[in-house]
Amino acid sequence: MKKTFFACLLLFSTLTQAQTLKNGKLYLNEDGSHFMKFTLLNQTWFRAFNYNPGTTVFDYSKEKGTDIGIRRYRVQFFGQLTDRVFVYSQFGENNFSHNADRKLGFFVHDAIGEYALDKQKLSIGAGLTAWSGLSRFSAPSVGSFLGVDAPLFLQSTNDVTDQFLRKLSIYAKGKLGKFDYRITMADPMAFQKSSGYSPIIGSQSNFSSKPAKKQWNGYFMYQFMDQESNQTPYMTGTYQGKKKVFNIGAGFVYQPEAMWHRNGSDTISTDMVQLAADIYYDSPVGSKGEAISFYGNYTNFDFGPNYLRNLGAMNPGTGNSNPDILNGAGTNYPAFGTGDVLYAQIGYKFSDNLIGKTTLMPYASIQHANYEKLNDPVDFTDIGLNWILDGHTSKLGFAWQSRPIFNGNGDKIDRKGGLIVQYQVYFN
Fold it and tell me: Residue 165: CB partners within 8 Å, gap ≥ 6?
C-alpha cells in the first residue's frame, strides 16, 4: 500500500511538471501542440415585448410583458490529444425562463471524436455534432454574434429532426489551400420525439413519420484573406477588427423522402432540399480599432407544398386563444417555410477606448422571406447596439426586434416588436 501511494505521488508530480495551464489551455506537451481547453458562456436576457394577438400564458390572456431568462449557458471541453486525435464536447441549456421546465434543461450539445488522416486536408469524425451543411451561420459561434442572436432560420430543422441543430453524424472536413469544406452524413432524429410532432397528414407538407433516410449536408467556402480555424464547426460572428476575413460560400442539405402530404386519398412523399449561398466580410477599417462586419445570404427551402413553421426564441407565451392568428403564441413568427429567403446583417465598430476602455458597435439585420403558404413577405428586423466592455468576454447588447403578424389566410395584418437587453460573459 505504501509503495502504491508513493508511486501515485510520483506519477502526479511528473504529470504536473509536464502540463502547464496558460490562456485557458492545459498543455500536454512542451511545444503546446497537445492540449485540453475549457470555456464557459452565459447569455442573460431581459425583454419587454408586445405579444401576438390572442396570446395566453397558462390560459390567462396576455397582450404584452417583460421577462428575464438565460438564453444560453454553455460549457465546452475539447482538446488535441495527439498529433491526429481531437475530442470535443459541449454541455449546457437554452431558453431557461420563468415558465420553463425546471431542472431538465441541461443536456449534451456535442460529443465527437475526430482523427486527422492529413492534419490540414482531411479529418474524419463522428458523434453528436454541428458539422453540417447549408451556410456559415447554420453552425454559429454563440459567443461571437454580431447582435444578440444568430439568424435562426438557417438552423432549418432545429429541434424537429435534430437536437438544437446537432445531429448524430459522420463527417469529413479540411482545407485545400484557401478552399474550406465540410461534408456530413447524418442520422435524423425521430420526428415523433419533437415537441411539434403531429401524426396528421394534410395537404400542407410536414415531416414524415416513416423511418427516416440518411441526411446529407455540405458547406464549401473560399477564404480570400485571413484563414479561419476549422478546428470546431462553429463560425465566428464578428472578429471585432482582430482579423481581415473575406469569404464566399455555398451549401446544401438533402434528405430523400423526408416530407409527406396528402393529395386526395394518396399520401405523397417528397425530398427535403435546401440550398444556400453566402458572403462574409469582417475587417478593420481604421487605425484606432474601427471595424466593419457584413454577412449576406440567399437560401432556397423546399420542404414540400406550403410547409411553414413558426419560431419564438425563449417564447413567453404558452398558448393562443385566437385561431385566426397564424403566428401562434407570444413572440412566434413564420421563420421557416418552402420558398426563398434573403438575409443581410451589417455592423460597425467604433474606435477602441471610445468610452473609457470600452467601445460601441451598432448593427442592423433583416430576414426577407417569400414563403409559398403566405400571401405577403416575412420581414423580420433586428436593430441594435453592442456596448463592448471587454471584447466578447463582457458585452452588453440592446436590440429592437420587429416581426409580422399573419392571419389564417396568409395575409399580413400587423407588426409587433419589443426590446431585448442581453449581458454576455464568455470565458474563452
Answer: 130, 132, 138, 139, 155, 157, 158
**Residue 169 contacts residue 129 (beta carbons within 8 Å):** yes
Model confidence at 11: pLDDT above 50: no
Cell digits of residue 135 = 451556410
Are the C-beta atoms of residues 64 and 84 closer than 8 Å to each other? no
How far apart (Å, rounded) are the C-alpha atoms in residues 200 and 208? Answer: 10
Side chain identity at residue 207, one-letter code? F
Q: What pLDDT is attached to residue 20? A: 63
Q: Average pLDDT of 376-396?
A: 98
Can you say whether the dihedral through the CA atoms of 308, 309, 310, 313 is positive or negative?
Answer: negative
Q: What does the CA dihedral 347, 93, 316, 363 come to, rounded to 10 degrees? A: 0
pLDDT tens sequence across 336-352: 999 999 999 999 999 99
Predicted model pTM: 0.93
Residue 189 is predicted with a pLDDT of 96
- Could you tell me if residue 281 is inside a domain? yes
Work out whether strand 35-50 and strand 25-27 pair parallel, antiparallel, or are unpaired.
Answer: antiparallel
Quick check: is 11 in a domain?
no
Q: Are 337 and 369 in contact (CB under 8 A)?
A: yes
Rounded distance between C-alpha atoms, residue 152 and residue 139, angstroms: 10
Q: Which residues contact 106 (CB under 8 A, 6 or more apart)?
A: 91, 92, 93
pLDDT above 70: residue 137: yes
Q: Which residues contact 208 (CB under 8 A, 6 or more apart)?
A: 191, 257, 258, 259, 260, 269
| Rg of the Cα atoms in the chain | 23
CATH code (residue 360): 2.40.160.10
pLDDT reported for residue 12 = 42
CA distances from 215 to 127, 162, 337 (A): 15, 11, 18
Per-residue pLDDT, 62: 97
Beta carbons of 284 and 290 less than 8 angstroms apart: yes
Residue 331 domain boundaries? 24-427
Tens digit of each residue's pLDDT (9 = 90 or more) over 251-308: 999 999 999 999 999 999 999 999 999 999 999 999 999 999 999 999 999 999 999 9
Smallest CA-to-CA distance from 274 within 160, 176, 178, 358 is with 160
Does residue 3 lie in a domain region?
no
